[in-house]
């Protein structure tokens, strides 16, 4: 939890708070909460019964370092801590709204992980639609929650919440496509985690379905959507637009 990572979700909460007209500091408990749920999801994602990974954020994964039982329990603890934080600096009404956002997103993340583990949603007319649903849930949901919680902390109007939600939905899907591409094209030195694992594990991925070029095209399309979604919020949302561009090009 404290050993690195991009901290994307707290940064999104901060910048969404700013885009909504608030002070970034007011998003800190919500940003920390979403990062805690994210870290919990990574610790459990790496377990032998899930992706069975031994490297995360450039270090041995928690179950390698501390044993499987402690990794499971640490994940459980991070989830509880996340919800414990949400009352800080929040009125009862805001705290209730934040808890609802994070609980819904956590459930969606877990459902995405279930279907990622089972090999795709059992329903859905096409493989592409099933793949999108897995990605939108396992990764998109917490990114969306980070943005929406930031807007709520900033006291944003419904229009700001709507714009940030559409931004986050495009960004979240784009982010996991980049993650899939890095698994194919990246190195452990760059990414801080093992690469070239998804195909052998039989994962449903964008490069697997669309190829590398098709995935790059989809990343650019989603980047355009994300940038356009927060255009109505004007200069205050420039950092969100810049973040989306950085995440489309990231190498780690
Ligand atoms: C990795 O997330 C897992 C996915 C949801 C794709 P990040 O790429 O945000 O990981 P950290 O937080 O920087 O380690
Ligand atoms: C991660 O997907 C999604 C969650 C942890 C919820 P991946 O399994 O592709 O993430 P990495 O590549 O291990 O970071
Ligand atoms: Mg996984
Ligand atoms: Mg994984
Ligand atoms: Mg991955």
Secondary structure elements and pairings:
Layout lengths: L7 H12 L8 H18 L9 E2 L2 E2 L1 H5 L1 H18 L6 H27 L8 H27 L4 H28 L2 H4 L14 H24 L8 H12 L3
Antiparallel strand pairs: 1-2
Explain the overall architecture:
The chain has 10 helices and 2 strands; from the N terminus they run ααββαααααααα. The protein is mainly alpha-helical and 252 residues long. The chain has a two-stranded antiparallel ribbon with strand order 1-2. Strand 1 and strand 2 (59-60) form a beta hairpin. Helix 1 (8-19) runs antiparallel to helix 10 and helix 7 packs antiparallel against helix 9. The chain starts with 7 loop residues before the first helix and ends with a helix. It binds 3-methylbut-3-enyl trihydrogen diphosphate (2 copies) and magnesium ion (MG) (3 copies). One magnesium ion is lined by residues 45, 51, 116.
Distance between the termini: 17 Å
Strand arrangement in the largest pleated sheet: 1-2
Low-pLDDT parts are: none
The main β sheet shows up as:
2 strands, antiparallel
Quick overview of this protein structure:
The protein has helices spanning 8-19, 28-45, 62-66, 68-85, 92-118, 127-153, 158-185, 188-191, 206-229, 238-249, and strands at 55-56, 59-60. By secondary structure, it is an all-alpha fold. It has a two-stranded antiparallel sheet.
Note the main attributes of this structure:
single chain; 252 residues; mainly alpha; two-stranded antiparallel ribbon; 69% helix; binds 3-methylbut-3-enyl trihydrogen diphosphate; binds magnesium ion
């Amino acid at each position: 939890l404290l050993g690195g990572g991009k901290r994307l979700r707290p940064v999104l909460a901060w910048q969404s708070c700013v885009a909504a007209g608030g002070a970034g500091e007011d998003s800190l408990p919500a940003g920390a909460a979403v990062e805690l749920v994210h870290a919990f999801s990574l610790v459990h994602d790496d377990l032998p019964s899930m992706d069975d990974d031994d490297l995360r954020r450039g270090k041995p994964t928690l179950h390698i370092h501390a044993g499987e039982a402690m990794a499971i329990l640490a994940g459980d603890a991070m989830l509880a801590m996340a919800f414990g934080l949400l009352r800080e600096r929040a009125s009862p009404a805001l705290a209730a709204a934040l808890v609802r956002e994070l609980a819904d997103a956590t459930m969606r993340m877990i459902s995405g992980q279930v279907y990622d583990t089972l090999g795709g949603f059992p329903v859905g007319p096409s493989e592409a639609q099933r793949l999108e649903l897995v990605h939108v849930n396992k990764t998109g949901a917490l990114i969306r929650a980070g943005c929406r919680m930031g807007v709520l902390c900033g006291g944003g109007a419904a229009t700001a919440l709507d714009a940030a939600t559409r931004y986050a939905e495009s960004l979240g899907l784009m982010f996991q496509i980049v993650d899939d591409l890095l698994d194919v094209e990246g190195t452990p030195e760059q990414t801080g985690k093992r690469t070239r694992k998804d195909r052998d594990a039989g994962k449903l991925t964008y490069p697997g379905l669309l190829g590398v070029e098709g995935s790059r095209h989809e990343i650019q399309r989603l980047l355009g959507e994300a940038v356009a979604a927060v255009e109505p919020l004007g200069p205050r949302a420039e950092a969100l637009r810049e973040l989306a561009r950085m995440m489309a090009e990231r190498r780690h």
